[in-house]
Write a structure and sequence with these properties.
- With 398 residues, the chain is an alpha/beta fold.
- It folds into two domains: 146 residues, Aspartate Aminotransferase, domain 1; 225 residues, Type I PLP-dependent aspartate aminotransferase-like (Major domain) (Aspartate Aminotransferase, domain 2), CATH 3.40.640.10.
- Helices cover 42% and strands 14% of the residues.
- It contains 14 helices and 14 strands.
- The strands form four sheets. A seven-stranded mixed β-sheet has the order 2-8-7-6-5-3-4, with helices on both faces. It has a three-stranded antiparallel β-sheet with strand order 9-14-13. Strands 1-12 form a two-stranded parallel ribbon.
- Strand 3, helix 6 and strand 4 form a beta-alpha-beta unit.
- Helix 4 runs parallel beside helix 11 and helix 13 packs across helix 14.
- The termini are far apart.
- Bound molecules: 4'-deoxy-4'-aminopyridoxal-5'-phosphate and glutamic acid.
- 4'-deoxy-4'-aminopyridoxal-5'-phosphate (PMP) binds next to helix 5.
């Protein structure tokens, strides 16, 4: 018998769809993947070489559960340089991806029945991570018409004596929104007033465009710092999704709790990968990050203009990450060859079958009127995929 805890999980839509698309591609189908939540760039060569060097030097044994000291020191230096926050190495726990860091953070602060506010649309794993900790996910919508910015009034209304944390992600997956400093300050004030934590997932911080500026809530005041758990990692900034390495930076008591917890789960993140991550933080890799960002920004502009040109589609602008979330709900009720599009799942199934373009249903991110399109694919494929998407949508009739 499967435990209730696991039985109640909704499987990860993004991970499942990735598997399905890989199978189609392996079977020779020309699928254009706009579903992928990972950069389509190679991991920069110096990082790969640092890993190879670590392996040949025999860095293959256990380390401290929280990670090697040089890496934790380098993360502290990064947090000070990029985010204006001061941490000591003992406040850092290096984990097997930001996904584990998020699970650690929630398990460390949530008791059964505690509430965690999650602004939506949100990444597929957030609600499940809270459920796995026996917490209650309280979803609070953001508005497409406001660029999916935090709705502070709605958050205020959702706070109860059981609120233990709010889980935010800026820049955001799936909307691409980058939260304003004003809204983060207001959120910080609420966290202080009602004594809850801001779990701040900053995994997309390096992918930020135009006027948008990434703000780490912990930098806003010493009091907010004490109420913030920063989540970050290497997957998106350095195109290291498969390496599985991320981290938390937290107030001392929380960091100790996370260290204790990880000591009984995975222990340290893979040792030679930690040496690669140490290399990633070296300033010499900044140029690779910048080049990736410039390319993503070109694609973002192209895709936004394209989506906005489709009849009956709206799309909010996005200051970060590599996702756009067009609203396609005007197509609900349309049909083609007897297939009626009732919701975002039907829409994505239709687009995959007819256009051979993979996109993710918004319903998986608590955004039933939208779909998520990831522009982590070449400009050439973006143009090919856009053409196919439009042709398929033109087949849909009321
Ligand atoms: N947070 C968000 C918002 C993400 O999109 C992802 C993507 N996988 C993660 C965390 C997890 O990243 P990692 O690969 O470091 O586990
Ligand atoms: N975060 C990425 C996505 O949203 C990767 C897949 C996952 O772990 O969910 O697609």
């Amino acid at each position: 018998m499967i435990s209730n805890r696991v039985k109640n999980i909704t499987p990860s839509a993004t991970v499942t769809l990735n598997g399905k698309v890989s199978e189609l591609v392996a079977a020779g189908v020309d699928v254009i993947a706009f579903n992928i939540g990972e950069p389509d760039f190679d991991t920069p060569a110096p990082i790969v070489e640092a890993c190879q060097k670590a392996l040949s030097q025999g860095k293959t044994k256990y380390t401290a559960a929280s990670g090697i000291m040089p890496l934790r020191k380098a993360i502290c230096a990064k947090l000070l340089r990029d985010n204006g926050v001061t941490y000591e190495p003992k406040q850092i726990c290096v984990s097997t991806g930001a996904k584990q860091a998020l699970n650690n953070a929630i398990l460390a602060v949530v008791n059964p029945g505690d509430e965690v506010i999650i602004p939506t649309p949100c990444w597929v794993s957030y609600i499940e991570i809270v459920k796995l900790a026996d917490g209650i996910a309280v979803t609070v919508p953001t508005k497409e018409s406001e660029g999916f910015q935090l709705d502070i009034e709605a958050i205020k209304s959702a706070i109860t004596p059981r609120t233990r944390a709010i889980l935010i992600n800026t820049p955001n997956n799936p909307t691409g929104a980058s939260y304003s400093e004003k809204s983060l300050r207001e959120l910080g004030e609420l966290a202080l007033k009602h004594d809850f934590y801001i779990v701040s997932d900053e995994i997309y911080e390096k992918l930020i465009y135009g006027e948008s500026k990434h703000i780490c809530p912990a930098a806003l005041s010493p009091e907010i710092y004490e109420h913030t758990i920063v989540i970050n990692g290497f997957s998106k900034a350095y195109s290291m999704t498969g390496w599985r390495i991320g981290y938390t930076a937290a107030p001392k008591d929380i960091a100790k709790a996370i260290d204790d917890l990880q000591g009984h789960t995975t222990s340290n993140s893979t040792t030679f990968v930690q040496y690669a991550a140490l290399e990633a933080l070296d300033a010499k890799n900044d140029a690779s990050v910048e080049a990736m960002k410039v390319e993503f920004n070109k694609r973002r502009k192209y895709l936004l203009d394209f989506l906005r040109s489709i009849p009956d589609v709206t799309c909010a602008d996005a200051g970060g990450a590599f996702y756009l979330m067009p609203n396609i709900s005007k197509y609900y009720g349309c049909s083609y060859n007897g297939m009626v599009i009732k919701d975002s799942f039907d829409f994505c199934t239709f687009i995959l079958e007819e256009a051979k373009v993979a996109i993710v249903p918004g319903a998986s991110f608590e955004a039933p009127d939208n779909v998520r399109i990831s522009y982590s694919n070449s400009m050439e494929n973006l143009e090919r995929g856009a053409k196919r998407l439009l042709q398929a949508m033109q087949l849909l009739k009321q």
